[in-house]
Amino acid sequence: MSKEIVSRSKLIILNATDGEQLNGDFNSDILFNFTDVIKRHYNTLYLTVSIQSAEIPYSFYNVSELTNIIYYTIQDTGGLGSLYSNYTMNIAEGNYNATTFITEFNAKFLTGGHGKTATLSISSLTGKFNLKPSDDTFEILIYNTTTTAQRIIGMKNQDTTFSYNSDEGTSFIFPANLLGTQKIKIFSKSLSCDNLTSHHLASNDMIDAVSVNASPFELISYSNTNAKESHMKSTEVSQIDITLKDEYNNEIDFNGIDWSISLVITEYLYGENIIPLGSLDDIYSHKRNIVLDDIKKSKKIKIEKKDKDENAFIDKELQFLAE
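User: That's the sequence. What structure does it adopt?
Assistant: Structure tokens below.
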């Protein structure tokens, strides 16, 4: 038989509840303590991995503990230029729209401990938040580097001062962004591939990505309809680790809710080409041909052996009579 590359696949179903939680109730960094998943064989060439399906709950928030802090200072504009102490606003975690975020912001500012009031609003034309102090006796300075909600409120790369501005207030630079996580990236050190992301600008441990195709508190479903697979760096696997991150490479907080992922690891080996058989008639014919070939070979060997034995007793002087 000829030699060619053959493959064999193994289906692996993972549920977060069965693994070891490495980042607590975030439930997005899980270790599955298998003993052996794939052991390398003498003729193993390489492995591939593919996510066949995924069922992931939309239990994470668009305002989380990673994006809910606004750090600011209030400055007196009455000629003294004095600064009040710095203040930290913690927006309660949850899934917000513009209206509910504005309500939360205004309430937290009112109880900030500085005795000042201000109003956050949003433009229906530009989608930008506007912040207006209650009068022109003070200004609000929001610090960019220590604020983690920059993307949500529309800040980027610079501190911003908000003044009364003749009752107009001051708009943020960019539109508000309450979209939350749009892409779930699936990473694994044990199943590491040669895939690329713009965040790393190099190969990394990402094996696939799932688009968020559901609304908050619904189920995100993914199916590998294109049968795509990724080439693995390793040729054997024992334990399996899975880490789920957002598009900004933050580990996602699933708030203790479990997810499920089905993956397939395919082993490619250099082996013999086994010709597949069809119907029972094909199998019978194939087997009959093998038996007939064996019989023919056996008869041929016996005849050759008999001729050899008979010729051995011929007198060499009478050899010409046998020729």
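The chain has three domains: 3-60+181-272, 69-171, 282-322.
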